[in-house]
Every structure is written in structure tokens, then in C-alpha cells.
């Protein structure tokens, strides 16, 4: 099963997502709950392992800005596909706080949303199923025109 | 009006292809109902009481005759040969088949139309004054700004999954507000600063629905080039902070109310400080490019046709009445704006058959440079009619049932589709409108009563804007029976306010008599030339209450 799309391609996922209160994997890159990471930040930052964090729906971009240089991956969890907060958080992380690592969508999102997510700076999508990853891959760029600025373009009016 | 270039055309064409693929996947059972929901809603498609309903955008109410001809064709090809013009200047098909919708959208795209974001929790169609561009008193034409907002909001990647729907309206007239901007999530008023430069006064947090609130001013003057970045800032604050736990408390008005307007403003300004002057700041070139689509047509050099009109009025009193109610002044001498009424008694307000659509399109071609507008009062407007052709137009309009001379009066009812069509409604609204229109069928009496807004909604969602009707009627459900609550004193204009509820609700068959009593109280109390709303203001609702609820002897 290969549910991950990153930088426009299906990829194997080297990361383990650690749920709240779940045991940590013995080795390999892991995505920690933000609170767990922040509680022992110095330790994790000093560790040799690749560390990422995931933000739940209530956690904001500002909660992680002190650690951007230490994090190879930030995952935004969509609690429900209708909850669009992650779109704004992604733009803030990329455009305001200059985060350049992997920004990954996790949780309950639709393959039909990946175009907008990509325009907000999310470059990896952990889809719910293999089938949805196929759809997402096909739906990465349904539009060739972008009226507004995003992390991928300036506003159209500058090119008209 | 705005004409698409190759970029704009591509957006609507690609949207059709996207929705066609999504619909196929849904019909193949590969998308769950609840997950198809936001995808179809953002293309205007509801599942209604009898069938799906497709809401098509008419950006800020502007329509060409060519587009209206196409709408007529599409209603015959895919629907039952009529459509419904809405209170947000859009148009709805009530009976399309889901599998036909991609083809309908393709037919619309060919005439530069779409249904993008006409529903769902996203930024909806921007609305404005139906007389925009031909008014004498407007600060500047609001339509270029509406078009800039349309393009900015179309497929906006960050704001497609907001806590709730989001509506923006623009007004450019300092003396009146036909766009009801203070009852929108964002209301924009065009203003000029001391140097004469265009900007916006910004109101946030107005709205109807369950919790009707008047929008509050968050900025007196926003220089025009900053319009889009400021909108981004407001939307971002809302997207991140608006409530998502309860859809009845999810509109931005609830956030503004909870924070208080000052704290809300502080957050917006803090966000905007980052966005100001960034990408999205409008360029002179873009403002000019869009503005060019709205320059005046080639008007003839005329003078006002007062003498001719006076003669025609004398000879035809019916023409005089129509002139008084359905014809509006125009900034160019010798021209007028004409409202084609969709309020003929016996027909649902805002409904229009395919043959009427073709007739209206023909009239637009013959009398008004091929253009039409849709008003939030659910009528059609020909904005550029020569005064010396008004009589001819009146005769033609009569033939097609467009000349009901009641614009702005009690029977120019604003009305949602209600329980006859809508799955959300608690009660029917169209039969109530018809009963009131039948009760007040004496035109001389109606004219004597003057301007009265009567608005009817079939439920709390307030699509019929009942809160801001001078007389508002709301359908409510009482143990499975349809009842109607009446309110008085609502005003959608510059004195924006929500009407006060008169008292316990009424059965459907009591409503016309109740309205009649309300009108009697007005007639008894009014001063010379005092409008209904002003009398309500002066005497309060008590005298109305007493009369309406008086025990019969």
C-alpha cells in the first residue's frame, strides 16, 4: 500500500505517525504529537533521529514556530474534510514563517482537496486509501489558471 | 459588462471537466454522499425536496441577452421550462437531473457563466445595486470592484472550507443602499477620501438567518488597491477562529459579536499588517483593465423627454402608473432604467418561464443595448432605455406579463421558494405571497400606500430576507402545522435594522387579513407623504399590535 503522495509522486513513507499516548517506534523517523515534542523539545532536537510533529485542529502555526529549523516534517491533521483551518495554517507556515521542510496533510481530507492544499504550501498527502491516492494524483492540478497568489504563484493579474 | 479573456474561459472550462469527473466518480459509487456534498455544493447543486436544485451565478446581477437566451434553452433542455431568480441576484433551476449537471455547466461555460461557489461554506456571489453604473449619485461604478472580488474569490485555495457560507456586497451610492451591505458578512461602501481617491468603508458581521445582526464598521477608509489583501485578512481571521462546533453559530457575525468589534478589528489589522503591500495588492494596470469593461456604452446625445412622456401619460393612465413605479432615473439625459416585474399575481415571485426569458432578452436587445440586471427584489432590469422608447417598451412588456406596475409597493414581494420546493423550509411562502397579492389588487390603493417592502421567508435561514422587510413574514413550524410570524420595521438600507416581531404567529389563511390590518393602522396614522416605515418608526409597533390582536366583537 502506497498512500503517500509527495512532491507530485507516489512515494514510500519512511515516517511513523505517533498517535497521542501511543508507544514510540524503536527506530526510524517519527511524527510526534506536538505536545509530546514540546514537552521534551531539547532532547528531541539533540536526537539523531528525524523528528516531525503533527498539529491537531486546535493547534495553530504559531505553536510550532519556535522549532521550525529542528523539524524535518510538519503534519497538519484534518479532523474532518470540511474543516479548512489547515489551509490557512499551511500558508502561514510557508509564507509568514518560512518553513521549508515537508508539510504533510493527514487525517480526514478528500483527494479533491489536494489542489487547494498544494496552493497553500502542503507538498505531501497521506491519503486515506490507495484508491484515493490514485485520484489525488490525477487531481493534483485540475486548473491551469490561478487568480490569486499562493505558495505556487503570484496573482494572475500580474501576468495579464 | 465584463467579457472573459482566455484565462477566465479556461477556469470555467476546467471547472466543468473537474465536476464531470467528480460526478462520474460519485455515480460509480466511489465517493460517499457526505463527501460529494461539498463538491456538488461548490458547483451550486443541492439535493432538494423533489429533485436536485442548481443555482447558477449571475455575478453582481449582470446578464447579457445572449446569456439569458442560453438560460432559456437550458431550462427547456434539462428542466421544466422555467427558472427562479433569487434574492442574491442568482438564478435557480428546480428540476435538473444530477447526471445532466455537467452538461448544463458546459452549456453555461459557452456563454461565460458558471455555478462556482453558489453554495457551500465558501465565498459566494458578490452582489451590488441593480442600478450600478447608471445612477446619478454613485461615488464610482461598483461593478469593476465586484468583478475583482469575483476573480479573487473564485477557487480561492485558502477559503473553500470556511466555518460557514460567506457573502460580500458592495454599495456605491451615498444616499441609498439597495445592496443591503450592512446585512452581509462583509459589506463594502465605496467612498472617496479628501484627496478624492477611491476607497472602501468596510462593515463586517451583518447577516440574517437565525441571529439577525447589523454589520459593524471595522474600517472607515481602505485605499482601493488594498481591497484584496484586506479581504484576505478578514477571511483568514474568520477561517482560523470562527466556530466549527455548531453550524448555527458559525457565521462571522457570531465571531465578531463574541470578540466585540474592537478586538475583532485588532485581529484583522494585525493580520493585515503582514499582508499589506504583499502579493494581491492591486495594480493600477489591473484596476484599469477590469474598469475598461464597464465604461459607458455609446449613449446618444439626448435630452429628457418630459413633454412626450407627459402627453403619453395623459392619454394612458396605465403608462403613467408604470412610469411612476417601474421606471428609475438615469445619469444620462434622455435615458431611464426600467424594471421588468416578475411579480405578476398568480406566479411565484422571481419565477420566469423560458418564453419570458426569451422575451426579456429580446426587449434587452431592442431597448437596452443587450444588457439586463437581476435585482435582489427578484425582478429584471433594463438599465439603458431611451425615454422616447419607454412607451413602446411598456406596450411590449405588457404583452409578456412584465409590466405589473407595482415595483417597491406592498405586492412587489420578496419571497424564497419555500416549502413548495425547498427541503429546509418550515412552511410554504409562495402561496402567502400570492394571497397578499390577491388581497391588494387595487392599484390605486397600492400607489397611495407607496413604498413598502414585504419580505417572506419559509424558514429561519431567511432567504426571503424577512428580517429586513418593512413587513416581514416568517414561516414557522408548530407541531407539524405551518404558522407565520409577522414583524414590522425592518429596513435593508442606510438605516439598517431588523424588524420587531408583532406577537404570536398566524395561520396561513389569516395572513392577508393581518397585513390588511397593519396597513389600516398605517393609513389611520400617517402624516402627509409619510412612508410606511417612517410611520412605524414614529408610532412604534404597539398600535399595530393592538389592532392585529384585538378581540373581534
Secondary structure: elements and pairs:
The complex is a heterodimer of chains A (160) and B (553).
Chain A: E1 4-6, E2 9-11, E3 16-17, E4 30-33, H1 34-39, H2 41-46, E5 51-55, E6 73-78, H3 85-96, E7 102-107, H4 114-119, E8 124-126, H5 130-138
Chain B: H1 6-27, H2 33-41, E1 45-47, E2 52-56, E3 62-64, H3 65-78, E4 82-85, E5 91-93, H4 101-109, E6 127-128, H5 143-153, E7 168-171, E8 186-192, E9 198-204, E10 216-223, H6 227-241, H7 252-259, H8 261-275, H9 284-291, H10 306-315, H11 317-326, E11 327-328, E12 335-340, E13 351-353, H12 354-367, E14 371-374, E15 380-386, H13 390-399, E16 414-415, H14 430-439, H15 443-449, E17 454-457, E18 471-478, E19 481-488, E20 500-501, E21 506-507, H16 511-525, H17 532-539, H18 542-549
Parallel strand pairs in B: 6-7, 7-8, 16-17, 17-18
Antiparallel strand pairs in B: 1-2, 2-5, 3-14, 4-5, 4-13, 8-9, 9-10, 11-12, 12-15, 14-15, 18-19, 19-20, 19-21
Helix pairs in contact in B: 1-2, 1-4, 3-12, 6-8, 7-8, 10-11, 14-16, 16-18
Amino acid at each position: 500500500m502506497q498512500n503517500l503522495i509527495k512532491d507530485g509522486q507516489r512515494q514510500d513513507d519512511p515516517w511513523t505517525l505517533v498517535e497521542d499516548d501511543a508507544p514510540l517506534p524503536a527506530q526510524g523517523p517519527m511524527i510526534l504529537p506536538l505536545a509530546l515534542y514540546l514537552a521534551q523539545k531539547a532532547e528531541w532536537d539533540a536526537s539523531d533521529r528525524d523528528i516531525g510533529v503533527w498539529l491537531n485542529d486546535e493547534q495553530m502555526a504559531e505553536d510550532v514556530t519556535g522549532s521550525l529549523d529542528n523539524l524535518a516534517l510538519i503534519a497538519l491533521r484534518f479532523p474532518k474534510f470540511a474543516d479548512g483551518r489547515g489551509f490557512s495554517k499551511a500558508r502561514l507556515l510557508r509564507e509568514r514563517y518560512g518553513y521549508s521542510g515537508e508539510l504533510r496533510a493527514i487525517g480526514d481530507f478528500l483527494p479533491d482537496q489536494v489542489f487547494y492544499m498544494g496552493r497553500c504550501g502542503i507538498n505531501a498527502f497521506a491519503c486515506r486509501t490507495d484508491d484515493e491516492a490514485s485520484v489525488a494524483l490525477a487531481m493534483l492540478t485540475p486548473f491551469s489558471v490561478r487568480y490569486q497568489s499562493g505558495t505556487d504563484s503570484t496573482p494572475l493579474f500580474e501576468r495579464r | 459588462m465584463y467579457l472573459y479573456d482566455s484565462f477566465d474561459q479556461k477556469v470555467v472550462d476546467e471547472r466543468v471537466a473537474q465536476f464531470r469527473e467528480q460526478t462520474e466518480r460519485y455515480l460509480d459509487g466511489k465517493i460517499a454522499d457526505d463527501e460529494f456534498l461539498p463538491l456538488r455544493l461548490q458547483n451550486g447543486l443541492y439535493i432538494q425536496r423533489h429533485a436536485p436544485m442548481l443555482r447558477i451565478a449571475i455575478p453582481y446581477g449582470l446578464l447579457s441577452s445572449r446569456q439569458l437566451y442560453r438560460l432559456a434553452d437550458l431550462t427547456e433542455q434539462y428542466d421544466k421550462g422555467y427558472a427562479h431568480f433569487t434574492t442574491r441576484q442568482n438564478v435557480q433551476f428546480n428540476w435538473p437531473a444530477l447526471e445532466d449537471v455537467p452538461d448544463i455547466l458546459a452549456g453555461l461555460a459557452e456563454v461565460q457563466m458558471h455555478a462556482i461557489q453558489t453554495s457551500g461554506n465558501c465565498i459566494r456571489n458578490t452582489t451590488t445595486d441593480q442600478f450600478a453604473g447608471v445612477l446619478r449619485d454613485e461615488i464610482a461604478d461598483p461593478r469593476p470592484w465586484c468583478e475583482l472580488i469575483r476573480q479573487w474569490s473564485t477557487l480561492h485555495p485558502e477559503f473553500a472550507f470556511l466555518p460557514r457560507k460567506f457573502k460580500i456586497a458592495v454599495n456605491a451610492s451615498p444616499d441609498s443602499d439597495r445592496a443591503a451591505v450592512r446585512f452581509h458578512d462583509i459589506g463594502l461602501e465605496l467612498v472617496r477620501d479628501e484627496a478624492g481617491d477611491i476607497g472602501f468603508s468596510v462593515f463586517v458581521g451583518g447577516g440574517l438567518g437565525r441571529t439577525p445582526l447589523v454589520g459593524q464598521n471595522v474600517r472607515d477608509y481602505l485605499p482601493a488597491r488594498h481591497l484584496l489583501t484586506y479581504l484576505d485578512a478578514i477571511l483568514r481571521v474568520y477561517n482560523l477562529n470562527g466556530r466549527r462546533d455548531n453550524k448555527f453559530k458559525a457565521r462571522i457575525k457570531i465571531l465578531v459579536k463574541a470578540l466585540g468589534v474592537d478586538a475583532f478589528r485588532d485581529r484583522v489589522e494585525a493580520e493585515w499588517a503582514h499582508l499589506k503591500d504583499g502579493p494581491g495588492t492591486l495594480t493600477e494596470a489591473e484596476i484599469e483593465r477590469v474598469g475598461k469593461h464597464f465604461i459607458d456604452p455609446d449613449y446618444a446625445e439626448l435630452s429628457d423627454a418630459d413633454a412626450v412622456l407627459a402627453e403619453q401619460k395623459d392619454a394612458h393612465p396605465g403608462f403613467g402608473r408604470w412610469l411612476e413605479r417601474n421606471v428609475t432615473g438615469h445619469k444620462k439625459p434622455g435615458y431611464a432604467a426600467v424594471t421588468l416585474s416578475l411579480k405578476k399575481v398568480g406566479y411565484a415571485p422571481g419565477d420566469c418561464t423560458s418564453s419570458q426569458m426569451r422575451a426579456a432578452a429580446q426587449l434587452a436587445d431592442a431597448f437596452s443595448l443587450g444588457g439586463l440586471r437581476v435585482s435582489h427584489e427578484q425582478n429584471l432590469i433594463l438599465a439603458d432605455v431611451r425615454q422616447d422608447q419607454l412607451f413602446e417598451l411598456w406596450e411590449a412588456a405588457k404583452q409578456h406579463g412584465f409590466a405589473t406596475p407595482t415595483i417597491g409597493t406592498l405586492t412587489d414581494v420578496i419571497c424564497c421558494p419555500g416549502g413548495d420546493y425547498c427541503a429546509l423550509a418550515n412552511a410554504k411562502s409562495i402561496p402567502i405571497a400570492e394571497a397578499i397579492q390577491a388581497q391588494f389588487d387595487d392599484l390605486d390603493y397600492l400607489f397611495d400606500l407607496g413604498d413598502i417592502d414585504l419580505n417572506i421567508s419559509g424558514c429561519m435561514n431567511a432567504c426571503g430576507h424577512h428580517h429586513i422587510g418593512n413587513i416581514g413574514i416568517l414561516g414557522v413550524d408548530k407541531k407539524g402545522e405551518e404558522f407565520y410570524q409577522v414583524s414590522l420595521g425592518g429596513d435593508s438600507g442606510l438605516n439598517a435594522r431588523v424588524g420587531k416581531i408583532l406577537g404570536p404567529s398566524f395561520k396561513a389563511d389569516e395572513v392577508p387579513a393581518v397585513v390588511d390590518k397593519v396597513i389600516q393602522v398605517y393609513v389611520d396614522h400617517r402624516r402627509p407623504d409619510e412612508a410606511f416605515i417612517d410611520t412605524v418608526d414614529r408610532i412604534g409597533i404597539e398600535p399595530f399590535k393592538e389592532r392585529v390582536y384585538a378581540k373581534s366583537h
